[in-house]
Amino acid sequence: MTTPIQRALEQLSAVILGKEEQLKLALSCLLARGHLLIEDLPGMGKTTLSHALAGVLGLQYNRIQFTSDLLPADILGVSIFERESGSDVGRFRFHPGPVFTQLLLADEINRATPKAQSALLEAMEEGQVTVEGETRPLPMPFFVIATQNPVSQSGTFPLPESQLDRFLMRIQLGYPNEKAERELLEGRDRRTMASNLKPLLTTQELAQLQQQVNSVQASASVLDYVQRIIAFTRYEGGFQYGLSPRGALALLRSAKAWALVDGNRQHLLPEDIQAVLPAVVDHRLAEAADGGAHSVSQRILNTVPVLV
Amino acid sequence: MSSTGHPNTDLQIPRSALLWLLGSNLAALLPHGQHLPLWMWGLALFVLVWRGLTHLGRLSYPNRWAKAVAVFAASAAVVVAFEKTFTLESAAAFLIAASLLKLLEMRNRRDGYVVVFLSYFLLGTGFLFDQGILAGLYGILTVWLLTSALVALHQNGFSHDAPSVRRSRRAAKLAAAILLMSLPLMLVLYLLFPRLAPLWSMALQSGKAKTGLSAEMAPGDIADLSQSDELAFRVSFSDGQVPARDQLYWRALVLDDYDGRRWQPSGVTSEAQWYPQSWQPPADAEGLIRYEIIQEATSQKWLFALRGVAAQEERIGMTMDDRLVVRRPLHERKRYQALSWPSVSISEDGLAGLEQRQNLQLPRDRNPQARAWAQQRRAEAVDDAAYINGLLRHFREQDFYYTLKPPLMGSEEIDDFLFNQRRGFCAHYAGALVFLARAAGIPARVVSGYQGGEWNAADGYLTVRQYDAHAWAEVWLSGQGWVRVDPTAAVAPQRIEFGLERAVAEEGTFLQDNLLSPHRFKGVSWLNKLRMEMDSLNYYWQLWVLSYDGKRQKSFLNGWLGLEDYQQGLYVLGGSFGGFFLLASLVVWWRQRPVPLSPFMRSWQRLQEKGQKLGVEPQAGETAGSYLQRLEQHCPQQQSLLRWLAGEINRSLYQPQVDKHQIQKQQRQLLHAMAKVRRQLRAGRD
To answer: CA B220, CA B131: separation in Å to the nearest integer?
Structure first.
């Protein structure tokens, strides 16, 4: 018997070819109630991925294209004076912005100014927005999938650390392999496929799965390993800052979701930690000095012993 | 300074270490305050302010020319200030000036070392001037500060988290721990390190600064001395037999040559017999006094003793005129035993010709009035003793005054004193009496030394200070020999019975040049008590710590440790050192010993060793599962077994179990499973 998660994965990989790993990470991220940041060059399938995720999970979906002249009101919504039909009296009515949705795709988030970027901060952290002095709750569940172009490209405002920290994971898609590329070239338009996906989960089932993530158990040996990693980032690794407690919790939560997605397991293995580590810590840590060829997470993986 | 490119010593001084460096350097400097010229403090202030401003980025380091000028100017200033004399003070001042200037170019860690080590040395030099208990405690404090500076110098600047206050506290803590740990070693060194006699010695202080008896006496010298409250020596009496205060005449010098103004030793009777050849009183003699003296450095060869003294120690001699001497000037404190028989008769059978002539010597044609008066009085007296008593009665009954501020005498000093002024200090009275005795044909001499002292009843010792300096007379009477005659006792009996303070109370001249001396405030009881407590602390410090010299060390080694000679002492010293470092390394090893592995890890490592032999190297940061997977690729025939083991490991280590019993059972099973896999691997290889 296949679980809903496996079925969702199957559907997704039919649309996004040859990216099993990233799909699993993206799904884990959503199950762990985290927001996802996809970083890659334009045209690598970022938008398609988020579109497909929304479709499969049966979520209401909105998309904001971030530009350099985007204003907070364009995201959150605005009150407009409206005259009631047939009368002279009128009143202000709030027109909710695109943020009021279940899955929000913030496309090319780093093309907008910091002001517009931070309009999303409260929404992501608290699940609510405050406009004109009034706090309005966002629908449940609320996910943000943001895409960004590599910082080296022109016309970008890099996200500050505080905002990067709000994203549970950051993943890269990368070029497809040869076989996937060929399939892509032969096959149908991916966008259409994505929009034609049938929802596999109801909102309630999704909430149940999220609940299940919390109940995945972590043994003392695994927690020891997590603590060794954290201690390494703080005291030994030669990073500018170590992992914060929020970062540590993010690592554990992502790994639990991964255990569920990867093998439908009810307990954590060190492999789960290792699988999500690059996506969770790479955007939270910075090398104090030039770190060389290896990424931050690779250095952790190659150094911190699993068994002691 | 640093042209060598050593990576460690080239490092910049950490900012939090700078305060330590400047502060501890200043602390090492402070004890030298007493003997430094005032401009030196100006230099210190200037240097510290400059270095502080450099630290804040307001000023740059001085350039090469400025430094050269500063060194030249400071050296010249030292030479000028000390009038080209080479004394310990001038040497110390030069050292201090150099160490201050070093602060200006203190830039990297290497310079920091130089400053700290210089300061240690400076601190050591301070003990040449003052070895009191306060100086000792202050020295320990400063050693702690300096060590903290050294620690702070090694706190590197990478830790962003610690503010400098916390880092400084850490440095101080670590330094204190280091010093405490080295305490046993310090004690061993103190007790066992060979006490070598100095190879050379040098005048401790320039004569100007040193107070004490001088080898000759002009009227007024002792009055000057009486303005000083410095310690001269301390005495403890054995068997608790403390002589009465009016018997405490501490003899130092015999002055038998008079030139009309000054009294000085002629040298006729100063030849010494050295212990043990010298005379000793019979053991059963009446009224023997045995005592021990701790004498401050005098830069002179004489010791202090009561009348009828006999030398008791090696390298101490006794002269024909009943004094103790040593061969070399005393540039450091000396502790010695002495035995006196005050009631012994000295030279009662007559004086040798030369001694007789010397003790009758008077400058020709001086003081004719006194001379004539003496001859007339002698003619009226029955015998010599009656004549002398008559003189004392004359002093007592006529209008003579005892004063610390005597008027200036005319060119015929004794005439002027006896017949006009009639005011004088002990030296005037002693000189006049000896003159009058000699003029009447009675051999006589002036003796200088100290009289009295302050008795500390609680701890049983006598403290004699410079203001106890005194001069009196000795006359030779046939049948009795040399007899002490103190004309001061006739004029001012309080001086002998209660001390100088009481004798000049009316005049108010006691220590009047020394306004802040605690000895002026003996009336304030708590202050006096405090002073006495401090004094007795210092006494015990001297008795138990400072006077531990080669001789006492030898007896300690002999008596306490049963060691016969130095060689054995050195063995013990070496042994303690070795033991100390062995102990220290044991402690360090114990602290850093590897944590014992769990049974699972031991078994796992053995499995990995097996795998290693098959060519599968374990990697850091690898999970058990992925290692077993690689192993599996290497020997596919064991695939099912290895997969099973991976499952077992994951189940045992990572699948949470609530039941404790279950956990133990699983662990046992896991160990069995791993042993099985190891056996299979070996079998597969063979």
So the answer is: 31
Q: How far apart are CA A299 and CA A229, in angstroms?
A: 11
Q: Which two tokens stand for residue B81?
A: 């200030």
Measure Cα distances from B24 to B20, B21, B134, B167, B380 in Å. Answer: 6, 5, 18, 16, 75
Residue B47, pLDDT above cutoff 50? yes
Q: Is B486 a catalytic residue?
A: yes
Identify the closest residue of chain B to A268 by CA–CA distance.
Answer: B654
Whole-prediction pTM value?
0.58
Chain A residues in contact with B655 (beta carbon < 8 A): 217, 219, 267
Q: How many CA atoms lie within 13 A of B285 on its CB side?
A: 18
pLDDT > 70: what percent of chain B? 95
Answer yes or no: B426 catalytic: yes
Residue-wise pLDDT for A174-186, tens only, equals 888 888 888 888 8
Per-domain residue ranges of chain B? 15-188, 216-361+444-547, 550-591, 599-685
Burial (CB count within 10 angstroms: exposed 0-12, middle 13-18, buried 19+), residue B130: middle
In angstroms, the CA B26 to CA B436 distance is 59
HSE value, Cβ hemisphere, 13 Å, CA-based, for B660: 0
Average pLDDT over residues A110-135: 83
Query: Is the Cβ–Cβ distance between A102 and A137 less than 8 Å?
Result: no
> What is the rounded CA–CA span in Å between residue B168 and residue B174?
10
ipTM (interface predicted TM): 0.81
Q: In angstroms, what separates the C-alpha of A302 from chain B's closest C-alpha?
A: 5
Yes or no, beta carbons of A306 and B624 under 8 Å apart = yes
Task: Write out pLDDT tens, residues B363-374.
Answer: 888 899 999 999
Q: How many CB atoms are closer than 10 A to CB B502?
A: 14
Annotated catalytic residue within B426, B428, B535, B635: B426
Closest CA to A197 of A39, A59, A21: A59
- Are the C-beta atoms of residues A173 and A39 closer than 8 Å to each other? no
Bridge partner list, A130? A135
DSSP letters spanning A75-94: HHEEEEEEEPTTSS-EEEEE
Cβ burial, residue B399 (10 Å; 0-12/13-18/19+): exposed
Give 3-state DSSP helix, strand, coil % of chain A, rounded to 5.
45, 15, 35
C-beta atoms of B621 and A305 within 8 A: yes
Closest residue of chain A to B619, computed from CA coordinates: A302
DSSP A180-207: HHHHHHHS--HHHHHHTPPP---HHHHH
Higher pLDDT, residue B594 or A230: A230
B62 token code pair:
């001085």
- Asked if A306 and B622 come within 8 Å (Cβ–Cβ), the reply is yes
Amino acid (one-letter) located at B174: L
Task: Classify the phi-psi angles of B325: left when phi > 0, otherwise alpha if psi is within -120 to 50, otherwise beta.
Answer: beta
Give the C-alpha separation, B415 to B430, whole Å.
14
Q: Which of A288, A267, A290, A170 is nearest to A212 (CA)?
A: A267
Q: B24: closest CA among B109, B93, B95, B121? A: B121
Question: What local confidence, expressed as pLDDT, does residue B4 receive?
Answer: 44
Whether B383 is a known active-site residue: answer no
| pLDDT per position as a tens digit, B152-196 | 888 865 554 566 788 888 889 999 999 998 898 888 888 888 877
- Residue B254's pLDDT band (cuts 50, 70, 90): very high
A307: nearest CB among B601, B655, B656: B601
